Amino acid sequence: SLVKNSEYSVPIYGLPRDRVVLKLRDFDASLPNRTLVGRIVGQRIQPYYTQAEINQGAIAGKAEVLVWVKHLVDRLFLEIQGSGHIMLENGKSVYLGYAGGNGAPYTPVGRVLVERKLIPRDAVSMQRIRAYFEAHPNESESIINENHSAVFFQTQAHGDALGSQGVALTPGYSMAVDNHWVPMGCPIWLKTTRPAAYRDKTREFTRLLIAQDTGGAIKGPVRGDVFWGNSDKASAIAGKMKNTGQYWLLLPKSLVKP
């Protein structure tokens, strides 16, 4: 909803006006190539508000509310995906794309549920997480707050999912990576399996993809997420996708150190 009401009361925020971004290399070339996100308090810079603080209203009035959704889990899954269509009450939709984050470390909510022995480790999926929160609504905020990371969005008029590379993502052929390890635009040969959308089956998935996006949950050289699209079927596949596999970066020989 574009207006807060009793049914739609969870805000999805744009970039807060008090959020500042610091590149360490701008201060000292010997520092790591890292970016910090914070806010100015007096004459000091402090870490930006955590997910829990934001859920308690810390940035109310400091950031535009783009839309209101029903549940915290709705916003959680949008943050995990990085972008998505929000269906409005009048039948129209708003497309929200990633604008930035609060700089805090990401903790998978599925891991929290497993550690608390609320979901079996081998049963974790987006569908199972949503089902748990719908069955236990009073527990959702405390569990979601274990993830200190928060994502802010921007409205995109064209409706295409844009990746971090600034180009529209192609379902089944665009991949999100940790760009500290894999350069944007790099061709990747992927060999894995993927789940069926609505059946308990998997099938081989081997093809050439392009690194075109990043994500708060994607850390390290051996993690990647395939973009499946925006349909219900795509959401069903993405929600169950946690398969292992192998990938090879296709790089010019001149870039490979002997």
Feature tags:
single chain, 258 residues, alpha+beta, Ribosomal Protein L25, Chain P, Barwin-like endoglucanases, 2 domains, three-stranded antiparallel sheet, 6 helices
Topology at a glance:
Blueprint: E1 10-13, E2 20-23, E3 35-41, E4 44-47, H1 51-55, E5 65-69, H2 72-81, E6 84-87, E7 93-101, H3 109-115, H4 126-135, H5 140-144, E8 151-155, E9 174-176, E10 187-195, E11 202-213, E12 225-226, H6 232-240, E13 246-249
Plain-language structure description:
Helix content is 18%, strand content 28%. The chain is α+β, with helices and mostly antiparallel strands and 258 residues long. The longest helix has 10 residues, at 72-81. It is globular and about 55 Å long.
Broad structural category: alpha+beta
First-last Cα distance: 56 Å
Give the spatial strand order of the biggest sheet. 12-9-11-10-13
CATH homology superfamily of the largest domain: Barwin-like endoglucanases
Domain tally: 2
**Secondary structure: helix percent:** 10-25%
Strand runs, count = 13
Overall 3D form: globular
Count of helix runs: 6
Radius of gyration: 19 Å
Sheet with the most strands? 5 strands, mixed
Q: What is the highest CATH level, the class of the largest domain?
A: Mainly Beta
Beta-strand proportion? 25-35%
